[in-house]
Design a protein that fits this description.
4 domains; binds zinc ion; four-stranded antiparallel sheet; alpha+beta
């Protein structure tokens, strides 16, 4: 207790203290303070005279006892009051982790109206779910969807991707960057013809899981530009398609270097930066694709 402070104790202070569950032990510290003894527990605490006269003083020992009781009823242990907010305390959860919770929430837990979720345990659960699938949990979804998380393809290409947690648990997703699913799925080699606004015709050779969608949604920038798919050759997997496509480009570049079109010609019109040839090569491109189609049939 702080030092006693000399001076009389006013009778109206005595009356207020008695009415509010306390007895005045004496004046302390300065002219504003009294030492109050709690009728319920006997604990003595320092109270401002102003508080005693204008409000209900609270016995800190009784408050701690109440918090301990609420915590025990909620299956927690009360550790200490929170230094930053008088409505919060730190508690020990059954898992052993320390949690910061609002007192009112703990009372509701004690009454069975709300449950407990340890953030640390929960984060560990989600992290190990991702780990089991070869991914690393980075954090919450940047777009704010509570069902999604941000993950990195740790055991693969390292790319980050937002994935629904439910899909991470079941594995029903694929990496949109290195996509094992994509590499293993049916794919196509294709030849496409574009007619630029200048009237110049170009031919593109490439591979895609879905050439029509690639043409409609990715390659063509202007909706009005005439274009068509000239040939589709199904390949067993995306991986097969890449492996077959690369040597075709090498062959075309080797044999017809003058037919490789300068990207500046189609910049802003076709969303790609290479692999486009002059239309004079169309028959060569189709012949190469037909050759691959025949070999695919034979094998
Ligand atoms: Zn008390
Ligand atoms: Zn925990
Ligand atoms: Zn990947």
């Amino acid at each position: 207790m702080p030092l006693p402070y000399p001076g009389p104790i006013a009778p109206q202070w005595q009356a207020a203290a008695a009415a509010k569950g306390f007895a005045i032990i004496g004046r302390i510290r300065d002219r504003y303070h009294l030492a109050l003894s709690c009728d319920a527990c006997g604990h003595v605490h320092a109270s401002r005279i102003y508080t005693l006269m204008s409000a209900q003083p609270h016995c800190p020992a009784c408050m701690i006892a109440r918090l301990n009781q609420d915590a025990a009823a909620a299956g927690l242990a009360h550790l200490r009051l929170d230094a930053n907010s008088r409505h919060y305390s730190h508690y020990r959860a059954p898992c052993g982790h320390s949690l910061r919770r609002q007192h009112e929430i703990v009372r509701r837990m004690a009454a069975g109206n709300t449950g407990l979720r340890c953030e640390t345990c929960h984060a560990a659960t989600e992290a190990s779910e991702a780990d089991a699938k070869g991914w690393k949990l980075l954090g919450p979804d940047l777009q704010g969807n509570p069902n999604y998380r941000l993950y990195a393809h740790a055991d693969g290409c390292g790319a980050t991707q937002r994935i629904a947690r439910a899909n991470m648990q079941t594995g029903r997703f694929e990496c949109s960057s290195c996509g094992e699913g994509w590499a293993a799925a049916l794919s196509f080699l294709y030849a496409m013809r574009f007619t630029l606004p200048s009237g110049q015709e170009l031919v593109k050779l490439g591979y895609s899981r879905d050439p029509d969608s690639r043409l409609a949604h990715q390659l063509r920038i202007g909706r009005d530009m005439p274009c068509e798919i000239l040939r589709r050759v199904p390949m067993r997997t995306g991986h097969d398609a890449i492996c077959a496509e690369k040597p075709l480009h090498a062959k075309l570049r080797d044999r017809h270097p003058q037919a490789v079109v300068d990207p500046r010609v189609y910049r802003g019109k076709i969303r790609v930066c290479s692999e486009i040839y002059d239309t004079s090569l169309t028959q060569d491109v189709l012949a190469l694709l037909d050759g691959i189609a025949r070999r695919a049939l034979d094998s």
